Amino acid sequence: MFDVIVAGGGPTGLMLASELRLHGVHVLVLEREAAALPHVRSLGLHVRSIEVMDQRGLLERFLAHGQQYPVGGFFAGLTKPSPVRLDSAHGYVLGIPQTTTDRLLEEHAAEVGTEIRRGCELVGLSQDDEGVTVELADGTRLRSRYLVGCDGGRSTVRKLLGVGFPGEPARVETLLGEMELTASPETVAAVMAEVRKTQLRFGAGPIGAGVYRVVVPAEGVAEDRTVPPTIEEVRQQLRATAGTDFGAHSPRWLSRFGDATRQAERYRSGRVLLAGDAAHIHPPVGGQGLNLGIQDAFNLGWKLAAEINGWAPEGLLDTYHAERHPVAADVLDNTRAQMELMSLEPGAQAVRRLVSELMDFDEVNRYLIEKITAISVRYDFGEGHELLGRRLRDVPLKRGRLYELTRGGRGLLLDQTGQLSVAGWADRVDHVVDVSEELDVPAVLLRPDGHVAWVGDDQRDLLDQLPRWFGAAVG
User: Fold this and answer.
1) CB 267 within 8 Å of CB 274
2) What pLDDT score does 74 carry?
3) Average pLDDT, the chain
4) What is the mean pLDDT of residues 246-257?
5) Fewest 10 Å CB contacts: which of 105, 134, 236, 265?
6) Residues 119 and 208 placed together within one structural domain of the fold
7) How many domains does the chain have?
8) Any transmembrane segments, and where (predicted)?
9) Which uninterrupted H or E stretch holds 216?
């Protein structure tokens, strides 16, 4: 029997598997596709995901394959400078194709001991008080204590569970692909600059060797978006949108996506949980989808591991839904708003101009960018210090920096007083006595996901909070 079976070997599933392996959990990843797909849907990592990679010691390998860009211009394509005083040591967006992100996460998952089986399609599941039985398309049956569906917007796991997925169906559709263009780079750039003055769902960017990544609005909404468009359909829509098809030919791959907006009613049903696109889908504006899934996994991993390893306090696993469902609901709302602002209707354009004016105020610009990049997320831990419930940015310490201390996925008491203790929880919480000129509090207790669980200097108050997140003391 496995401890956890993860259905889906995309970024969410691989990140979750790696988080579970940090705590010795026996995990199996089942991926339906026999080989990695060439489709590049996501083009980068936002600030919070960059921080997540840094917290686990993965950032250097991502930086080696990506390019850093300013964080401005991500809200509805409104071009604004990067806001000042962004609350992060990583104030940039990392441009990196999803195929590379997938590969790096799969390599990391394998390094930490994850078993990954490709070409395995989940077609059935049942659960009881002791675990979950999974049935594969070839008739194989597997058993695990928990199952997590990270199997995308058309999630088989979610459908088999019967979990509702309310929201709005797609109203518009977009064609996407990589292909060669016979038009000169100068012509493509000039046409794109002109068309994008009004049509922000259009783009044609070079990716090397004469190949372009092309995005263009579709004529309508296909009945079955799993059927890719033809190159002729792409050419036709290029002519309708840009007045030219650029001589598009020799596609590497073609696909289509819609702007459906839906969210699972619940992220947990007994011993089965949902994460990533299986739990929420939304338009790709702002580039938040892949990042949201990675952050789901980062929240869930340590909690599920605590449950399996027997030290989770009562209700800890349920905080996954309580914390992440509102975060995704907010993403759905901001993508709805962005789609409205990108409409060509006169009323929407008037609102767009007004929002653009408001974003000239740095506080408004920063507010929207911190929302898109997820560094403004604050979980509800109750009343207390303004840091409570927020993730703590990487701060320099006298002996290194904060994120270097979080690589093991454990809790962390950063103690600037030298007077506190985590005796009884030392197997789950690291106690580091160090100081930072950028941290104006006596001490902070961080959960394994980097969110602040306690602030203060009172030992008895700390002892009241440790059991809430880290279970009963031992010894």
Assistant:
1) yes
2) 82
3) 94
4) 92
5) 265
6) no
7) 3
8) none
9) strand 211-217
